[in-house]
Design a protein that fits this description.
The complex is a heterodimer of chains A (136) and B (280). Chain A is α+β, with helices and mostly antiparallel strands and 136 residues long. Chain A has 3 helices and 4 strands, in the order H-E-E-H-H-E-E. Helix content of chain B is 68%, strand content 0%. Chain B has a domain at 150-280. Chain B is built from 14 helices and no strands. Classes of the chains: A alpha+beta (136), B mainly alpha (280).
Chain lengths: 136, 280
């Protein structure tokens, strides 16, 4: 075997070890990752921060784009959690701004929903708490 | 020395350049379509407060400005398309590798690592380097690229299996973990204004054991290295992994585009079925 073939083989070994290393270290990164999606056993309930409109006292659901400026549920979940931890009122105002820009009216509520996810594959909404209100 | 030679021959087998070019074209096309379809998300910086640099942006504390991000996106799309089509691979290879890694790293730096982007980023690097070196010895380099691509795919699934065991232990198959993940995805979609899969409601009626499915998933991931052993095992494993992702997409609306389009699995199958070392 030529020297350059050995060099290529060495590169393959190094790359494979690099890609596999997070399994041992437990440190997630990019692009070498622990691939932690679905790795945990979830508890029986799941909490999400979300938002909705209230028109004439009736709650109206918002699209994911209006709630979190994304169409990716994973990103939306993280964004809403972080935004509310930082400043719930500011998060509410940002959503109300998007709602207004979309030509929609009504009060905007940011709320935490709790879902039971231990009753088979179908989730059940078991509670919600409003954490901020804004808009008109 | 003999063992070293055997290992080297396996890691750097011979394959026809056409086999590698097929993967290059297909993976490149998938990545270009992905970047174009996801352009609004890829070129969005979101809230700067969430930025947490990873990958090629590990050093950064702020996202790129929008104009710079759009230029980077355009460079990535054009160079990956050119690479896929075989235009000046010695130039487009390195440009595509750098631009592609940067744009995918940037997207995963916006507060959430996107795990389905990790393998495309790794494979892009492999394809770009392989395409750049192809002129040196087409058969050897093509075989090396395919084998390395297969190793990356297999290692990623093995890591995923090990992580499940490390994080949850045997509870991952013992408890109704799979049901809860499916219910969690449905709840998240419903809560955040998305749409849960309608299959969630009637899947339980099929009477398929979640525990059995969990065992199959974990076994597929941990047994991934078997796909490197022979032709039949490579094909069977690849088909089963594809079915696993198709089921995830159907029940959770979570689309792993890289394996579902076959871009992640093509090197596994080709390296096992067409690459040969000097002894065969």
């Amino acid at each position: 075997m030529t020297c350059w073939a050995r060099a290529l083989a060495l590169v393959s070994v190094v790359v494979t070890v690099w890609v596999g290393w997070p399994a041992l270290s437990g440190v997630d990164g990019f692009p070498a990752s622990t691939q932690p999606m679905y790795a945990s056993v979830r508890s029986g309930t799941a909490d999400f921060i979300t938002a909705r409109r209230v028109v004439d006292g009736t709650p109206v659901a918002l699209s994911m784009a209006l709630v979190a400026s994304t169409d990716d549920p994973l990103v939306a979940e993280r964004r809403m959690r972080s935004a509310v931890e930082r400043d719930a009122d500011a998060a509410c105002r940002a959503i109300a701004e998007r709602v207004r820009a979309a030509g929609l009216g009504g009060l905007v509520e940011v709320l935490e929903q709790t879902w039971a996810i231990d009753q088979g594959m179908t989730p059940v909404l078991v509670g919600e708490t409003v954490v901020a209100q804004c808009g008109s | 020395m003999r063992i070293l030679n055997v290992v080297t021959r396996w890691l750097v087998p011979r394959a026809t350049a056409a086999d590698f070019l097929m993967w290059r074209r297909w993976a490149g096309a998938v990545l270009v379509v992905y970047l174009v379809v996801r352009a609004p998300a890829v070129t969005d910086v979101g809230d700067q407060a969430f930025f947490d640099g990873v990958g090629a942006f590990w050093w950064a504390s702020m996202p790129l400005e929008i104009p710079a991000l759009r230029i980077l996106w355009g460079t990535a799309v054009v160079s990956i398309a050119a690479l896929a089509w075989g235009l000046a691979p010695r130039v487009t290879g390195p440009v595509a590798a750098i631009a592609g890694l940067l744009i995918l790293s940037h997207r995963s730096s916006l507060g959430q690592i996107l795990w389905f982007d990790t393998v495309p980023a790794l494979h892009l690097l492999v394809i770009a380097v392989t395409a750049s070196l192809l002129a040196v010895d087409a058969e050897r380099i093509a075989g090396w690229g395919l084998r390395l691509g297969a190793l990356v795919t297999v290692a990623t699934y093995a890591v995923s299996g090990v992580t499940k065991l490390r994080v949850s232990g045997i509870d991952w198959v013992d408890a109704p973990a799979l049901d809860r993940h499916i219910a969690f995805s449905a709840a998240r979609a419903e809560s955040l204004g998305g749409r849960p899969s309608p299959l969630v409601d009637w899947l339980p009626n099929l009477g398929v054991s979640s525990t059995l499915l969990a065992v199959v998933v974990l076994a597929l991931e941990l047994a991934a290295p078997l796909a490197l052993v022979g032709r039949r095992s490579a094909v069977i494993w690849s088909v089963l992994i594809w079915l696993m992702h198709a089921t995830i997409a159907a029940t959770m609306f979570v689309v792993f585009h890289w394996p579902l389009t076959g871009a992640a699995l093509v090197p596994v199958v080709l390296a096992a079925t067409t690459a040969t070392d000097d002894r065969s």
